[in-house]
Amino acid sequence: MDNHTAQNSGPSAGLPGYLPIAEHGVIGDLHTAALIGTDGTIDWYCCPSFDSPSVFGAILDRAKGGYYRIAPATDGWTPKQLYLPDTNVLITRFLTEEGVGEVQDFMPVDSGRTATHRHRLVRRVLGVRGTMHFVMNAQPRFNYGRDEHDMFFHENGVLFRSPGISLALETPLELKPDGAGVQCHFALGPGESATFVLERVPADYVPRAYSAEVTREAFEATVTYWRNWLARSSYQGRWREMVHRSALTLKLLTHLPTGAIVAAPTTSLPELIGGSRNWDYRYTWIRDSALSLDALLRLGFTDEAAAFMGWLTKRFQEPRPAQDGPLQVIYTIDGAAELAEETLGHLEGYRGSGPVRIGNGAAGQLQLDIYGELIGSVYLYDTYGSPIHHDAWTALCKIIEWISQHWDQADEGIWEVRGGRQNFTFSRLMSWVAVDRAIRIATTRGLPADIEGWRSVRDAIYHQIMDKGWHPERHAFVQHDATDVLDASILIMPMVKFVSPEDGRWLSTLDMMSRELVSDSLVYRYNVEASPDGLDGEEGTFSMCTFWYVEALARAGRLDEARLVFEKMLTYANHLGLYSEEIGPTGEALGNFPQAFTHLALISAACCLDEELG
Amino acid sequence: MADHLLGRLRRLGVFADLTEPELHALTGELAEISFPEGSWVVRQGTKATGLYIIADGEAGVVIDDEERAKLTTGSFFGEVSVLLAEPPTADIVARTPLHCLVIQPEQAEEFLLGHPRVMYRMLQAEARRLKTVDPMRN
Predict the structure, then answer these.
(1) What ipTM, to 2 d.p.?
(2) Pairwise CA distance, residues A53 & A60, whole Å
């Protein structure tokens, strides 16, 4: 225990610099999630919900964000990180000259007992070989580092009391004050363990001791929960472990009490290091959620679809001004429509990539495509889940009536551009999907609808895309009717069955995209220089688009190419099979992490490619 | 010295409900005492010496030569012998340099009745200890 001095010199002195975004795993309890670095540091954790203020936010500011670290007390260790197979229980291992130890991180899931959910984050430390000396340092910084807190030491731990929330860190080991946090040094021999439970508690709570037996039961219950959930997957194809990791990750992003799905559990991880494209993704985008459901439905997970439909039905019933459309683009997980965007100037941002934003200004945008993704997923749920209910059908008919009146207008589009509205081809395409899928549901189920009226709207959209979305000189479908710029979102065109995957117009578009948007198999969303989007800076390649590219190649019969692009894309996953939103020029993960878009597209591409390969 | 003691009091769970003036008043009621690592703080069967609250350090509860529990910062001990005016039923040994706040046996009743919120916190902790050892629950 002689070599701890370096770790003790200050509240943040024990925390090294920023880890790469990809050097993290994620755990969660279907209410919120935590990022855990390969160095044993939790540097992102919001409590009690995904969109609550952060308690540990060192990923956005090493000095001010707060962290919770358990690591060897000596220097010179090698970390390894893995998930316990088929679960979201994360194991971070440390190998040193003196021995081997590991930390098992998990958050118990209280399925069905949400009212009493305790939001526990359990860190179970085990000695494996030799004698391992560990140091634990918990430095909470409540409300994104804006709130002060008090600490109270009790017999079995410490209570952190802030104005907004109180957390107890419970352990039988002695905790020492360390600045605004606590630390603890301990040694474990083979087979020995120590447990730290961080839990949300009332402000007057007295921390309790968790016995080894209670901890083990919580561990086993959590493992069983995830394995039982994954056992419902019907996927038997190639790349099954990657597909299942993506499914487990999508499930982690669902909010059990409401059925909502967040786009990612983080905010402001930059799309380019040092850049300003930093957004808060801890909300429910209609688009992302609908596409996530498509992916989960493909694998046989219908409960999540049913829960999201319940959330969505409530949104349908809320009155909104007619010009804004029946639904907002983004909601909070509780369904609130207010997401005022705010900048946290006191945080430097990941590796200095400011500003750090919370809230999301895109909520007020008009994005006509969301109805296509939405009704597309309703159609899949109606087909593979359970038949649509009367109230949902009535609401859906009202959406189609609204689209019939409003599809032919400019909007901000899928990429949420801030450079002014355009007549985006993708928005038209997805409006076509909305009306087409509604017609299919009505026809299949014999439901009342103005089928003739809807058909004429659908066909009008079709003709407009073929007339104005098609650029005869470029021999390609383009981003919008006033440009010749390509846009990778259009890769979805054959997937939604708007054109045959072997249609001449489509094949020439695919060729053009391969030439202009694809770089070493990775796909850019669009050429930012050619199509100013109102934002400064460049960005990486967009992983979801790369997976869509795989599907487009596979459906076009270019199977060898599709398989190689897919396999290459798999090499960009991190050590756990997780992806962020984008990939930088040297292969680094960029943007919020892990991201639903990428994982849902991986599932879709794997299913498609596996089917095409036979 | 009083400021130093005040800083310690603010951090301890048993005093979490007290206002700043109440904490100030408390500094006059509590004595501080330190023990080196390895020394006996309380011996089984001897005279009650006080109600101790650990301000910093770690102590072991030893019964019949076997260490049964660890007490850390925020824990208290000696309350049973003080309240029942009986000799201590366990030995307490300092496992690290130990710094305690102590209430003399003859002042314990007045102290507890004068600070009902502190008494309530101690009762809560006592209840949790009972729950842990209750054979019906284990």
Answers:
(1) 0.74
(2) 13
For residue B77, the chain A residue with the least C-alpha distance is: A155
Report the DSSP pairing between strands B76-77 and B51-56.
antiparallel
pLDDT tens-digit series, residues A447-503: 999 999 999 999 999 999 999 999 999 999 999 999 999 999 999 999 999 999 999
CA dist., res. A327 & res. A306, Å (int): 19
Beta bridge partners of A90: A83, A105
CA distance B20 to chain A (A): 13
Cβ atoms of residues A170 and A209 within 8 Å: yes
The residue length of chain B stands at 138
Which residues partner with A83 through β-bridges? A90
Q: What is the 3-state secondary structure (H, E, C) of A356-404?
A: CEECCHHHHCCCCCHHHHHHHHHHHHHHHCCCCCHHHHHHHHHHHHHHH
Other beta carbons within 10 Å of A216? 14
Kindly list the structural domains of chain A, giving each domain's residue range(s) and its CATH number in brackets, ordered by start.
Answer: 5-229 (2.70.98.50), 236-613 (1.50.10.10)
Q: How close B53 gets to chain A, by Cα (Å)?
A: 10
Distance, C-alpha B4 to centroid of its chain: 19
Residue in chain A closest to B56 (alpha carbons) equals A176
Structural domains of chain B sorted by starting position, each given as residue range(s) with its CATH number in brackets? 2-133 (2.60.120.10)
Task: Tell me which DSSP letter residue A450 carries.
Answer: -
Q: Does A161 contact B at CB distance below 8 Å?
A: yes
Q: Does B57 touch chain A (CB under 8 A)?
A: yes
Is B67 at the interface with chain A, CB within 8 A? no
Q: How many CB pairs under 8 A join A and B?
A: 62
Rg of chain A over CA atoms, in angstroms?
25
Kindly determine whether residue B125 and residue A175, on different chains, have CB atoms separated by under 8 Å: no
Q: In angstroms, what CA-CA distances link A66 with A11, A72, A342?
A: 9, 19, 20
B12 touches chain A (CB under 8 A): yes
CB-CB under 8 Å, A152 with B13: yes
Place of tokens 């009155």: A319
Question: Could you report how far apart the first and last alpha carbons of chain B are, in Å?
Answer: 45
Q: How far is A157 from chain B (nearest CA, A)?
A: 8
DSSP structure class, residue A17:
S
pLDDT, tens digit (0-9, with 9 covering 90-100), for A428-442? 999 999 999 999 999
- A97-143 per-position pLDDT tens digit: 989 999 999 999 986 645 567 899 999 999 999 999 999 999 999 99
CB contact, 8 Å: B68 with chain A? no
> Which residues neighbour A570 within 8 Å (Cβ) at sequence distance 6 or greater?
A239, A242
User: Which helix (H) or strand (E) is A43 found in, with range?
Assistant: strand A41-46
Chain B within 8 Å of A155 (Cβ-Cβ)? Answer: yes
Kindly determine whether residue B75 and residue A154, on different chains, have CB atoms separated by under 8 Å.
yes
CA distance A409 to A325: 12
On chain B, the residues whose CB falls within 8 A of the CB of A153 are: 11-13, 72-74
Cβ-contact A388, A444 below 8 angstroms: no
Using the beta-carbon criterion (under 8 Å), do B11 and A156 form an inter-chain contact? Answer: no
Q: Is B89 helix (H, G, I), strand (E, B) or coil?
A: coil
Q: Which residues from A are below 8 Å from B76, CB to CB?
A: 155
Distances (CA, A) of A321 to A283, A312, A325: 22, 18, 7
Instruction: Give me A384's structure tokens.
Output: 């593979």
Q: Kindly tell me the burial class for residue B36, based on how many C-beta atoms sit within 10 Å of its own C-beta (0-12, 13-18, 19 or more).
A: exposed
Q: How far apart are CA A405 and CA A493, in angstroms?
A: 23
Question: In this complex, do B125 and A176 lie within 8 Å of one another by their Cβ atoms?
Answer: no
Q: What are the φ and ψ backbone dihedral angles of B131, each rounded to 5 degrees?
A: -60, -40
Residues on chain A touching B56 (C-beta within 8 angstroms): 176
Q: Which of residues 177-216 of A touch B (CB under 8 A)?
A: 177, 204, 206-209, 211
